[in-house]
Every structure is written in structure tokens, then in C-alpha cells.
Design goal:
30% of the residues lie in helices and 24% in strands. By secondary structure, the chain is α/β, with parallel strands linked by helices. It folds into two domains: 134 residues, NAD(P)-binding Rossmann-like Domain (Rossmann fold, 3-Layer(aba) Sandwich); 193 residues, Dihydrodipicolinate Reductase, domain 2. The protein is globular, with a radius of gyration of 20 Å.
Length: 340
Amino acid sequence: MSTLKHVAIVGATGAVGAEMIRCLEERHFPVSQLTLLASKRSAGKTLKFKGEDIVIKELTKDSFAGVDIALFSAGGDISRTFARAAVEAGAVVVDNSSAFRMDDSVPLVVPEINAAEVKLHQGIIANPNCSTAISLMALYPLHQAFGVKRIFASTYQAVSGTGAQAIEELASQAREWASENRAWDDAKLASKPSVYPSQIAFNVLPQVDSFLDSGYSKEEMKMENEGRKIMHHPDFRASVTCVRVPVFRAHSIAISAEFERPITAEAAREVLRNAPGIEVVDDPATKKFPLPLDVAGADNCAVGRIRQDCAMDNGLSFWVVGDQLLKGAALNAVQIAECL
């Protein structure tokens, strides 16, 4: 097979699709032809790739003739409808939705953790949930060294995780507040939100995804379920609260983890300094710790606030931040394509 690949991006006009295009270009992925696919209403528009205008085509089940690798980022329903058609046409699908993540026949891959599993694919490879991928970038190296048993985590998830419309909703609400010269304690806006159930500007929403009978949301359970699969750790436990915050880009996660073996903060820092894809930013005395504003646009995740947990034996607490659109989505998908 030729080194150059015909790549298709499904959902090319979305926030993640745009980042997939950029990652392919910036990482010099060997693209012979790029096919951009989206809904009928976007067909005919153009997007830039390597300085050229690429015309967007309408997604159909006949869109994948000659395609080698198809990067999907258009939601689970689209993936369930079109991914098999892409495989039947001869493409390998890298899917960013939750449609196939827990399918035993589909590898769920973070390349820094389990890149070798790419070769086990039967046509589809799944990208993990964004918060799961970012969390495991820090947690997995510690698991290798100390054996993680369980975690308690709270996420601080940027609106980019919901997509381009959510990004615009936060921006619009912030502009509305500023234009009215409101006082700091008068932040509730008259306009009605359309993406989220409540105003996101100057607010936090303790719901990401729909709730289950257990009281947890689907998003919260992904950390445990996907973490078990990626780490091959069936006994891994995770109690998570997912929160949407008024940040445009980059997710943050506060994690308290319990390990099988004794762990110290300095030993953890040493492990993390040598881990791929993650940077240690951890000097509270000089106010240095990972911030979403600093990590936005960065390929690597960052970890800090590393300290022994005072509520658990063999416990460690830390704060990890990663760009949801990159390591949480587009970059991870392109890295999987590189493994292929």
C-alpha cells in the first residue's frame, strides 16, 4: 500500500473537525487526498488545507470509495449509520464518538498508553471520551508504578466539549453582560440559553450528558468504564462528578487516587516527568500550576498540585489539564492514524 493516504473527515465543519484538519497539516501526515464530509447544508462550502480550498461534500454511504482512513467526529448517530459503510469500502475508521467504545471487538486507544492495540482493529478504532483521555495521561503512568485502585474526581469541562454552538453561546452571553454594563452581582441574563439548560456564562452546570438511574451521568461513568478497558484493569473504580464551566477551551480534572503501593508526591513527580505526552507544572509557591488558558492549543497535557492525599492511605491528589479539542479529540485521532 502507498505511504500516502486518502483521508476523509466526517464532521469537517465542527470544532473537532477543524482541529483534525489542522493536526493533519501541522503534523505533516502523509495525505494524498483529503475528503471533507458534512451535512447537506454545508456541502459546497470550502475549508483550507495546506493553502488550498477543499470543497465540502455531503456525507452519504457512498462517500468512502478509495478512502484509506476515515476520521469521524459527527456524533454517535452518524457513526452508527455510516462507519460500517466506510469499512465496507475499505477504509479504517477512527471514531471520536461513544458509539463503539465499549464494543469488545473495537480497540479503545490512547497512543501513549496502548498504541499496540491499533493493530487489533477490525475496521474501527475508537477514540476515548475527552475527560477520560486527559485524566489517563497522568493516571496511567502512576498506575504502572504504583497500581491504582480507585479515584474520586471532579471535572471542570470547557464548552468546546459541546461543540461550536456552545462556544458561541458562551461568547454571546459574555458580550451581552458586558454591553449592558452590569454590576458584578447582577450576572443573570434575560436572554434564554439554547445549547445548555441554564446560562453558562458566570455559572457552573453540574451536569454533562444525561443522567442514569444511579444518579450518575453517562459522562461520569465513562471514566470508570473506559478506564478499565484502556488500562486493562477490570477492578478500577471511579466516582466522578462532571461539571461544565465557563471556559472556552481545555478541560481540567481534580483527581484523588488510591494506590496499592505507597506513593509520595516526589515519587509521583518523577514518574510523571518521564511520561510521554504530559508536562509537570507544579510549583504552588510561585503560583505555577496548569491553567486551561495556558494549555489551550497545546498538544501535551499538564499536571500539577501534586500532593499526598490526607484522606486515603497510599493516596495522591493532583490536577490535570488538557485541550479537549486536541488530546481529548482531534489530536488523539490523528495520532491513532499515525499508528496505522
